[in-house]
Write a structure and sequence with these properties.
This protein is of the alpha/beta class. It has 14 helices and 12 strands. It is globular.
Length: about 375
Amino acid sequence: MKRDSKPGFGTLAIHAGQVPDPTTGAIMTPVYLTSTYVQEAPAKTKGYDYSRSHNPTRTALEQNLAALEGGRHGLAFASGMAAIHCVLNTLRAGDHVIAGNDLYGGTYRLLRTFYDKFGITTTFVDLTDLDQLHAAFRAETRLVMLETPTNPLLRCNDLAAIAKICRRRGVLTMADNTFATPYLQNPLALGCDIVAHSTTKYLGGHSDVVGGVLVCNDDDLLVKLRHFQNSCGGTPGPMDCFLVLRGTKTLHVRMERHCANALQVAQWLERHRKVARVFYPGLASHPNHKLAKQQMRAGGGMVSVELKASVAQAKKVCSSLRVFSLAESLGGVESLVDHPASMTHASIPAADRRRAGLGDGLIRLSVGIEDLDDQIRDLEQALQRLK
């Protein structure tokens, strides 16, 4: 039985940031479909003036997500990339970024095709190797961006160690926690400065909304981030905020099923004669398994697989699955399969992908919450097609 006074995760997921509507008693947060707010006098408001700046539905979502991450401040965005863009907007020309070399293709594209031309340079390194991190620092380094588990190779970076190194150098750390979710891992508690999520994924959980969020504790950092959130305008609409709030209410129960299914799928794949290698932090064979057990509560819902097959055959497997739908994105209740080299990570040059260990035959599974037996049967029928 829980004996301290702090609410548990499930209670926070359902209640944090939300109270019954004082006007009607409605238990669900109202969707405030308004662009502007009447003021009592010029500049005298009830906390809201224009919905790009603030909206009551968005406020509820920001408070909810901050509570789930154990943070003080939440900022919601129209997409995960808008959230990452906001962090990068705090930099100046001449600044330097260190990023993981195994990260989402959209993040790589933003750094290379947008910020490069404004004089903000990036060094991509394997952040599981702290020696590479140390070697990448420059006098002008201002930010370290990491994912853990990474997308799509599911490497686990040591959040506490990286945050400690960066803190000594006065460098900010931003951890993309999309794959793990706050149910499994809390980067702020391990010393990171900013946590980012694509709320499109597990937080929304139903493949019906696109969004992003940043969570931090520092008041001065909040002021900087809030400025660019408002000035650049990449904010979510109230209906999108409502849908993510609906999703977070079941995050804890969904993640338990995602993790249970993914572990069983990973173990089954690891035994399959047509599988060369399985990437899943919950497997003892994973090179970062010990670290994953230290900083995660379970292995997550994502599994990546290298098949004993050609690239063409790997693509054929993706197209042959039926319970696993061939689509980009992840984290919904339904299972998805993705071929990163031609889909989510196609914007990364092939040589850079291969240098980071992302082979053209790799497939990525977002293991949903369907019946496990149906997932296994689907994978088996697709793998039987391999010669």
